[in-house]
Structures are given as structure tokens and as C-alpha cells.
Amino acid sequence: MVAAARLFQEQGFNAASMEDIAAAAELSVGTVYNYFKSKAEIGLAIYQADRDLVQGATDKVIANPPADPVDAICRMMETDFETEVGYLDRAVWSALFGASFTDQSSLSNAFVSDELMRVDQFRKLLQVLAAKGKIDAAADLDAAAEMLGALNLWYFMRWLAGLQSGTGDAAHAILSAEGRAALKRHITQLTRGLLA
Asked: How far apart, in whole angstroms, are the C-alpha atoms of residue 44 and residue 181?
């Protein structure tokens, strides 16, 4: 997966072949095919590894969120953005994301599943905050979780767009100091409808 990610970064998803991946991993092509039937399966494994890592990290925020709802939601997004498999960077995500909207329906499904996991994590966090009396239990937590998921995706897409426009390098973090301030402003506005 590390070798594939490096090739996706350097060549793009479509240009990297299974043979290239095997050579970069110093394995025979047959060995690679024993584990992955296609590049899409490797991409799925990368998505899954990242999703599992992010879910584990955000589960910790859900279990013990900051008392202030704005801080709790910001911490959740920051944790998501700061938690990443070590061999992934913006160029790899850009290659995988682009492939998911071409002929790789399994990658598209993985991307959607990944985003739905994040919405579910926001829902769980909001339920915990409501149970603690920090937000109005009568608020539409499902709608709020969906909006937070959309905002989370917006920050991710903005980060990817920075690479495409040449305004950032592949290793640049999703949230700069300016980004953190903007995130807090956005979350403050969104939580107004959740307060009792």
C-alpha cells in the first residue's frame, strides 16, 4: 500500500500499473495479486486504513468531548484532519479522489462510505453533548450531523483544490492557523441552532 500510494502520488492513479506497484514494493506481480486483485482494491485498502484510524481517534473525542459544544465539534474535525496514515498526503488523496469519480465505482463507494462514517461520528458526538445538556436534545441532530459532515468535506475539498491550483504542497496540513479560526467561526454559527 505504501508503494502504491507513492506511485499514485508520482504518476497518478490511472498511470500506475500493478506491475509498477509490484516493482516499487520489491515483490513479484503474482504476490501483489495474491493480496489485491486490482489497483482499486489497493485504493480501497488505503481508504479503509485511513477510515479505521480516523474512527478510532474520533471515538476518543466522542467518549470525552470538551464541555463547550463549539470546542467539542472543532476538536472532532481537527482530530479527523490531524489523523492520517503516515504514507498519505494531499497528492495521494487527490489521485484517489479523482479516480473515484472516473471509472472506479468501488472507490466512489468507498469515498461515500467514508463520508457517511464521518456524519455518523458527528451524530454520536451531538448525542453525547445533548445527553450532557450542552445542546438542545430537541434539536434535529441528524440534520446537524449532516451539515457538519458537509462542512468537514468542504475543508477537505478546499485542501485538495489547493494542490490542484498550485497554492500548496503535497504535505501541507488541512487546517492552518487561519483555517482553525475559520472553522471555529463556522462551527459557532452552526451551533446557534443547537443551543437550548
From this structure: 33
